[in-house]
Write a structure and sequence with these properties.
- A hairpin with a 2-residue loop joins strand 4 and strand 5.
- The radius of gyration is 32 Å and the shape is rod-shaped.
- By secondary structure, it is α+β, with helices and mostly antiparallel strands.
- The chain folds into two domains: 70 residues, no CATH class; 147 residues, Zincin-like (2-Layer Sandwich), CATH 3.30.2010.
- The longest helix has 28 residues.
- The strands form three sheets. A three-stranded antiparallel sheet has the order 2-1-3.
- The protein binds zinc ion (ZN) (2 copies).
């Protein structure tokens, strides 16, 4: 049994904690009689419980909210990669691909561009910064921008292994990469094969954004 209190006359009555809807303990009959309207009693213990539950719920919701923000893998060092991709594509006058960003746990970063689906999937370095993420984004976007010419050799067979990798990152891709770097970041990246565009761009970006990027990042990121 718990106390039911009338807030008008402060009279209390004991009753069950879950009385039926029409249980008279819910109402102060004296005050109801006087005012001509049903005057409800309230149960302080129930009210306290309700408040505690509400607070707990609000706290839980805010924890979930911060976790969700923290867990958004597509924002790195304040750089929103989907927005960055939109910005680049607008500058290139290119149809914006779909983007899926994951965070790597152990190994380095990696990315994949799907030509037919017009989609980019990236796994960022666990300790990567926004420069390494940008490099990866530009790398994959360059594949889509250059188009799928790499995909087969002249006789139409699909290439695999080292040869595919070379052609995959051939002259078309290098030109596309350089164009994105220039249009998107005002940085000139050489297109000659002997330059490793990703490493070059990464160092330039780190300098531009005053980030400390190490060669280790480059190796780990497979830029
Ligand atoms: Zn009363
Ligand atoms: Zn590639």
């Amino acid at each position: 049994m718990i106390k039911w209190v009338c807030l008008k006359c402060n009279s209390t009555k004991l009753g069950p904690s879950r009385p039926r809807k029409d249980d008279t303990v819910r109402y102060c009959l004296g005050c109801s009689e006087k005012s001509g309207r049903l005057v409800e009693r309230m149960a302080p213990t129930l009210e306290k419980k309700r408040m505690r539950a509400a607070e707990k719920g609000a706290a839980l919701r805010s924890v979930r909210r911060t976790r969700a923000v923290r867990a958004d893998p597509s924002v790195i060092d304040g750089l929103d990669l989907p927005l960055e991709l939109q910005r680049l594509c607008a500058a290139l006058n290119f149809h914006v691909p779909a983007l899926k960003v994951r965070r790597g746990r152990k190994s380095g970063g990696s990315g994949h561009a799907y030509y037919r689906a017009h989609r980019i999937v990236m796994t960022l370095l666990p300790k990567g910064n926004k420069a390494s993420a940008t490099c990866l984004l530009v790398h994959e976007l360059a594949h889509l921008y250059a188009g799928p010419r790499w995909a087969s050799s002249l006789d139409g067979r699909l290439l695999v292994g080292e040869r595919a990798r070379q052609i995959h990152h051939g002259a078309d891709w290098r030109r596309a990469y350089a164009r994105i770097a220039l249009v998107g970041y005002k940085l000139e990246v050489p297109t000659a094969e002997r330059y490793q565009q990703g490493k070059y761009f990464y160092k330039e970006l780190c300098a531009k954004w005053r980030l400390t990027g190490s060669d280790e990042d480059i190796r780990a990121g497979a830029l």
